[in-house]
Amino acid sequence: MHHFHYSGQDLHCESADLAAIAKLYGTPTYVYSAATMADNYHRLQRNLSGLDLQICYAMKANSNLAVIRHFANLGAGFDLVSGGELRRVLAAGAKVNTSVFAGVGKTEGEIKLALENGIYAFHVESEPELARINHVAGQLGVKAPIAIRINPDVDAHTHAKITTGKSDNKFGIPLKHAAAAYEAAAKLKNLRIRGVQMHIGSQLTEVGPFVEAVKKVAGFVAELKAAYGIEYFSIGGGMGIVYRDALASGPQSWWDAQPADKRPLTPELYGATLTPLLVPLGLKILLEHGRFMVGNAGVLLARVEHLKRGAGKNFLIVDAAMNDLVRPAMYESFHEIVPVHRDSSRRALVADIVGPICESGDCFAKDRSIQEVGEGELVALMSAGAYGYVMASRYNTRGMPAEVMVNGSAFELVNVRETFESMTAGEKIPAFLK
Fold this sequence. Notes:
The chain contains twelve helices and 21 strands. It has helices at 18-25, 34-47, 65-74, 83-91, 108-116, 127-140, 175-186, 208-228, 267-278, 291-294, 327-331, 420-423, and strands at 4-7, 10-13, 16-17, 29-33, 53-58, 77-80, 100-101, 121-124, 144-151, 173-174, 191-198, 232-234, 284-287, 298-309, 314-318, 337-339, 348-354, 363-371, 378-381, 402-407, 410-415. It is of the alpha/beta class. Helices cover 28% and strands 25% of the residues. It has two domains: 34-291, Alpha-Beta Barrel (TIM Barrel); 296-422, Lyase, Ornithine Decarboxylase, Chain A, domain 1 (Beta Barrel), CATH 2.40.37. It is globular, with a radius of gyration of 23 Å.
C-alpha cells in the first residue's frame, strides 16, 4: 500500500499536491513518500516479530541520501553492493555496523573501506573472494566477518534479468559446494565466520519460492551453526510490489477486494509463512528488501509536450524519457500512468506514451488508455521509487532529474536537477585539439 491518492480531482502524495511540486521544481521529477517507506518498514518488522530480526535496506533500489537517512532513523541497516554505496551511508550520517556488503566483484579498496568502517559482514560469492578478503584483513591486522552466499538453485519465477538463485546465475556458491567453501574459510586466519546468506531474485509475487529456498538450505544452516557457531541467516530480499492497478492499492483496502488466489504477496503472508520455518534455527534473521521498501513510495512526474497523431496510432510525448526511467526499455516493465489532474468529463485516449529521446525503445507504454491530456498538463508514472533515479543516465545530454521527498503536507527538494554546467564540469578538450 502507499500514500498516493486523488484529493478531489488532483493527485496528491500524502497531503502534498503533486501539481504544486511540479510548479516549484519542474519536470521530470521523482517524488517520494516518507510515510509509505515507514509503513513498509514497520509492516515487515511487525509481521516477523517472532524473530530476532535485522532489516538491511537494499539501497541499490534507491540510494538518495534522504532515503538512506530515513531508513537509518527507523532502525534499518543497509545491504551494500559497492564502495560508493558505503560512502553514501556515511554521508547520510548513518552507521555501517549493522550493514552487509554483497556483490560478486568487491575490490581490495572496497574491502578495506568496509573493514575500516566496521561492516557487520561481507556476503562472499566465491572462494577467490574469500582469499582476497583474508589478504586485506591481514594487511589491516583485523579479522573480517564473513557469510557465504548460497545459491540454492531455486526458480523464482521472475524476469530472467533479475533472477539470482538459479545455478546458471553468476551469484553465490552452489549448495553442494558450500560445505567445502566454509571449510576453506575456516582455515584462513584473518576471517571470522559470522553467518550464511541466500537471495533468489527480485519482484517475487508468490511466497512459494521463498519457502522452497528456506527449506532447501535450513538443514545446512543448522549444520553451520553447530560447526562454526554462526550468528545469523540472511534470507535476502526480493518481495515484489504492485505495478498494475498501482494507484488502486493506496490507502484503501485494495488487497481485501481481490480473490484470495489473486492477491499479491504481502508482508503479512510472507511473515506468517516463513516465521515458523526460521524460528527453530535460533539465529538472527537478516532481510535485504529494496523494491518492496521504496517501489510504491515514488512516482515520476512528467509534463505533456504534445499529442502526435500518426497513421493508425497516437503518440503522447512527455518530457520524461528512458534516461530518467529505463525499466520499460530494459525490462519491458509496466508502470501505471495517470493524469495529475483527473477530469471525468474528458474522453479516453489510446496512445503510445513516449519520451523525446532518439530511440524507438524510448517508450513507457504502448496502446495505453489514458484520459485526454493537453500540452503542459502533468502525468505521473506510478511505482517508480525503486530502480528509477539510480538507473538514470545522461543519454542525449539530458540532465539527471530532480528528487523530492514528502512528509505529510511538507515537501523538500532532496536532489537538485542537474544542469549542463555540472554535467560537463569534469570534461575537457585536450591541448592537442586546441
